[in-house]
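Open question from group meeting: does this chain pack into something compact, or does most of it stay loose? Before anyone orders reagents, we agreed to write out a predicted structure and look at it together. Recording both the input and the output here so the notebook holds the full record.
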Amino acid sequence: MPKKHSQRAQRVGDQIQKELADLLRNDVKDPRVGLVTIVGVRVAPDLSSAKVFFSVMGDEAQRALTTKVLRGASGYMRHVIADEIDVRTAPELHWKYDDSLDRAFRIAEILKETGTPPDAVDDDKKEPEST
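Structure tokens returned:
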């Protein structure tokens, strides 16, 4: 039975991700919110809480301000989500900044500084050695 719960949690997470992206694009008009992308949503098996992974363009101060605004708007967003998806109560939203894009940019910069072409580190493009 845990499999069913994880599938349900995954479906609910996908729905929440879509609804939050729509909300941020169409309804949240706060100028303090930067360009936000909802990267993923991981919902607890009991559907009581959801970790919302997001990225935002800008520096550390912009990320901190955006995180504060998103956390402040969580109640409103939960209310909208509860109306839009098939759950009794919308999960409590926990906002987590996803730094994977930052790390990818840093790696690209390091490669650029060292003069290493990006495709030189791509294992899929390596040709087999001749013997």
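Observations to bring back to the group:
The beta strands are 36-43, 49-56, 92-97.
Residues 2-26 form the longest helix (25 residues).
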